[in-house]
Amino acid sequence: xxxxxxxxxxxxxxxxxxxxxxxxxxxxxxxxxxxxxxxxxxxxxxxxxxxxxxxxxxxxxxxxxxxxxxxxxxxxxxxxxxxxxxxxxxxxxxxxxxxxxxxxxxxxxxxxxxxxxxxxxxxxxxxxxxxxxxxxxxxxxxxxxxxxxxxxxxxxxxxxxxxxxxxxxxxxxxxxxxxxxxxxxxxxxxxxxxxxxxxxxxxxxxxxxxxxxxxxxxxxxxxxxxxxxxxxxxxxxxxxxxxxxxxxxxxxxxxxxxxxxxxxxxxxxxxxxxxxxxxxxxxxxxxxxxxxxxxxxxxxxxxxxxxxxxxxxxxxxxxxxxxxxxxxxxxxxxxxxxxxxxxxxxxxxxxxxxxxxxxxxxxxxxxxxxx
Amino acid sequence: xxxxxxxxxxxxxxxxxxxxxxxxxxxxxxxxxxxxxxxxxxxxxxxxxxxxxxxxxxxxxxxxxxxxxxxxxxxxxxxxxxxxxxxxxxxxxxxxxxxxxxxxxxxxxxxxxxxxxxxxxxxxxxxxxxxxxxxxxxxxxxxxxxxxxxxxxxxxxxxxxxxxxxxxxxxxxxxxxxxxxxxxxxxxxxxxxxxxxxxxxxxxxxxxxxxxxxxxxxxxxxxxxxxxxxxxxxxxxxxxxxxxxxxxxxxxxxxxxxxxxxxxxxxxxxxxxxxxxxxxxxxxxxxxxxxxxxxxxxxxxxxxxxxxxxxxxxxxxxxxxxxxxxxxxxxxxxxxxxxxxxxxxxxxxxxxxxxxxxxxxxxxxxxxxxx
Amino acid sequence: xxxxxxxxxxxxxxxxxxxxxxxxxxxxxxxxxxxxxxxxxxxxxxxxxxxxxxxxxxxxxxxxxxxxxxxxxxxxxxxxxxxxxxxxxxxxxxxxxxxxxxxxxxxxxxxxxxxxxxxxxxxxxxxxxxxxxxxxxxxxxxxxxxxxxxxxxxxxxxxxxxxxxxxxxxxxxxxxxxxxxxxxxxxxxxxxxxxxxxxxxxxxxxxxxxxxxxxxxxxxxxxxxxxxxxxxxxxxxxxxxxxxxxxxxxxxxxxxxxxxxxxxxxxxxxxxxxxxxxxxxxxxxxxxxxxxxxxxxxxxxxxxxxxxxxxxxxxxxxxxxxxxxxxxxxxxxxxxxxxxxxxxxxxxxxxxxxxxxxxxxxxxxxxxxxx
Amino acid sequence: xxxxxxxxxxxxxxxxxxxxxxxxxxxxxxxxxxxxxxxxxxxxxxxxxxxxxxxxxxxxxxxxxxxxxxxxxxxxxxxxxxxxxxxxxxxxxxxxxxxxxxxxxxxxxxxxxxxxxxxxxxxxxxxxxxxxxxxxxxxxxxxxxxxxxxxxxxxxxxxxxxxxxxxxxxxxxxxxxxxxxxxxxxxxxxxxxxxxxxxxxxxxxxxxxxxxxxxxxxxxxxxxxxxxxxxxxxxxxxxxxxxxxxxxxxxxxxxxxxxxxxxxxxxxxxxxxxxxxxxxxxxxxxxxxxxxxxxxxxxxxxxxxxxxxxxxxxxxxxxxxxxxxxxxxxxxxxxxxxxxxxxxxxxxxxxxxxxxxxxxxxxxxxxxxxx
Lengths: 371, 371, 371, 371
Known about the structure:
- The model of chain A has no long low-confidence stretch (mean pLDDT 97).
- The first copy, chain A, has nine helices and 17 strands.
- Chain A is globular, with a radius of gyration of 21 Å.
- With 371 residues, chain A is α/β, with parallel strands linked by helices.
- In chain A, the strands form three sheets. A nine-stranded mixed sheet of chain A has the order 16-15-14-13-7-12-11-8-17.
- Chains A and D meet through helix 1, helix 2 and helix 8 of A and helix 1, helix 2 and helix 8 of D.
């Protein structure tokens, strides 16, 4: 058992989630590397000190460079705004320090390309945080599809839908300006990553994106909403499968609509994050009068479940996905084996998002290879 | 109570369903007009006689003209192959006889246009058979949307998916040749009709259509499949709502996937024909900590349910939809009030299908008004 | 094909359902015997004439003896109040005419015993109407259990729950007086019949029965409720299985709670009439990491489904159960083979109800054999 | 922020779960008292040292007295076998140290009585670990019932069902001997505690308990199973509600069947731990044609959810229940306010279990007050 000092940049929602995970992961998984919460960085010294106290970090700073350069910080978590990702990651790579980066990778496609390139050049562990894909159920789905258990995939449908802006009178916030804070920038990457991980690369797509509520109440009257509420695209994957993805922040009634359905020549899969402990599997080889979708409750035989619970059906939750991420990151560092999704995978997600915008603006099919 | 003589053309699957419905509808609904099963027409005299016996028709014929012209036949059901629809309908209209036509309307867009035009010219009752839309649950969905109960519709997703050809080794049949027997020709019209009925006219769309299994085992070795297995399109409705529809006969595991979801600014709806006695409604005005989708079981307070059962939750089934169609057709004849969907509505469905093909072939967005 | 004249006694809810079924059954099933709706009997001549017109019967009467004795009436449906069942059935049996009797069998245990004894003595077709058990899904459940597919049954839970009296201020009606109109008399027989049919005879039980709302608003102020709102019992079946049944008319939110769950040594079954087209089956022999309950949608491979629909998942409804009953009754007459449940089975249900009352009153376990 | 030293007795399944919780709870909840994992005790020195390393405890011991008496251990977790609970708890109380005790309270009713009495006498914080009841959904259910939102409760049904012994050929283990390791001793307490917490005290009951598989394969051939596989009871609660509870370890297909349904005069509730992030609520005051069960996904507005996640529907899991327990225990110590369920509540659960055994053996209704 060896300790590894962790530096956390960002003390918001995801900063908290990763901090809880780092506190818990060693007892949950008995990892070879034990994380030591060395330093946390937020925007003010006082705020950082408070977060250090709350999240059990030894030290704090308001200067991320201090954190990255601190000799006791041996690996860096980036949970700060997208605009900061590039510079931080490059600084860490320059020092040969592993980096875990919250999705999306960079603020622009150029940033993402630079980050993926530098990650490869540096040759150090790099990993993306697309947490939902780490549920035992979604890991199982990946295994089932990859093994050919449902045959050749003929169709994929995915959505990432929530409803936090479904009320047209919900006030404007930082989320209603800036392309990267819109639905395509903020929500879509999760499900695009899932699609790429479950089915494989997208070859071409045609997208439609929309700002449904063009104004919202602000502090000084009506404010313009400058990013998108919903978007969708049809696509073909490189393996020939047909696909469709939809993303929305105005999907009234959907709280965590991370949903996918996969049809194959021998079976099918359904998953809905709102009931994240079940994977629905249709086995085309079942006796004809006994066929139907089987609701498989995740359990100790499924990926990463046993560490949380010995009994099937007891269930894991949102925070547990983050703990699994922490375990995977530590393991990647320890073994030197990259764990999906890496920065390169984060870049592929970004490319799909970019292709959607181009397709939407030009109203035509776009090939990913033409980007 | 007045009798009305019915002529049934077609003795197959739908011919049987409509015959059962005509036998039952009077006792179920106590309609003003009572149908008398006067004559049935199939392709052979012997076959027609047998069907007459089985389905309780007085007489039979192998010549549809005999049926249409028979003075005791006062209204005509068309449940024969698509290619025959035009000629039969025009003959009936020429005699001023009401016509009920199974979906789709005509075998070609030109046929459908002619049928809709002649229906209008003749001024007699004409009605399309898109049976699924007549469940109490889907009728309720139409009412809810039309009333504004879920606000402005922002998104619609629909699918008609089955899996009768999901096995690549299922043999070729008459269903695997002829565009009108493919997925876009045979399955898509149901859900397109639903979309038009629930949301309103489509203004533009972009489609992708595919024959996944290009050969199937036939009597003489491998046979080419000349029509489509699956298709999908993105669209915008005239009222501005964004939409997406998907159709498949290879959607492994789906038996009767007539599914739609509607998001509105004040609520949402979900429906799945595989559980046809429930409509899921999300009421955006609910108390914030009590909000969620409510599973409404259809009951006597919902459209057409009470005639089948006094208690809620007891459920109606496939055959009952056809009985409701019969009641509506009889009522339309009796009152002279057209009942949705008419031939004109059938034509609008056909136009969307045609636009899909054009969009698919030209790989571009197509406006319905440009057809 | 031979015609058989039917006499229907009762023009209420069940009288209508059976009349619709008799009109439809020949076209649905192509039965060997074709029912002719010969005569209907209700309490007044005018009412009966009106029902004859509505339900398509040739003649009508207000005197059930006239109906039973009519030479063209060759089989009798009893859908009149329980108190009348005994006398009618005996009159029909005396004339050697087959009898279909709506549940429950007799108004008292003595009545039921006499009816079962006379049915046996007469040696003519006799059948009980416990309609819900005739859904394709519940027929499939019986087959699965009987075949040993889920192994030895270790536990059965059943309920028949509705909520038509859940509101304490719902007015008193004829349903709130008379033991036979209470929950144990009116609702319990359905699920007891299911338990006996699925698992086998009950050997002993202990029951608890309750009138929760002892008064309800009536025409002259508060009126006493003289029968039971809910009841439940623990039991052992003769095959050793442990069981539990619950019945209620005040189960808020339950519309048609005809629900059972069966645990066996090799599998399990779940069914809920509110989603009557699905049977949930757990196969204990499944691969350990793929196990779970499979939602089997009823289809053409399951009992009696194909007559209604060629495609799986299209669904049958309440009225279809009654049509299946009609087919089974006609078939029993034609073949001379008794179809479950007969009057003898109806008597066994009544015995369990009686044992419940005795157990409740004496607050002790009661053996069915001690009745 | 004050530290509090924790001593953990037991390093098994629950020992691990509580250790993970103690590592995480401070970052999740920002508790006033911060737990310091001071010492862990298991049966061997080497094993304890290993657990200390894995679970992040400072020190270890194989002697629980050393742990309890250690001055840095300021509060004690008991997660060791039931037979040890009494002695440990009394030793801790004698030193005025708060105790958290895993369910069930004592190995015998006498033990439980002594523990509850000593807890009261000592006047220090004492709390039971019935973890499942701490999900946000079940906490919400308690609030809803307590507030009268569903009116007067008329019926309660609960079950705790799993299937780890459903295969008759599963080998005998320590779980198959000893009453306290049987279904009534080990599983029943969870759901009995839920029933008491949701509805209130039970007044009388009648139970049936069974060892279905009386022998299982052991190391030396067939071994006798000396405890129970399944049990059930009918009951009345002190507030008059009728109830029924069922417990099984052979309920084929049930993985975590912690299920309850509550009918009230104004509404109803359903919960199933296998989908622990949803509570189903039927609101009897809904518009009649919009009524149905609403699937409420837990979210930030519900108890204890926000600490884990800002968005609704993201979900908590098994481990999170234990973290909530830790928070509640720390808060109880900090504030001096007892948190349900205390040892007194654990005793009431034990009394119901004892009454079940007495009722089963004497085959009669038993009043809790007569124990």
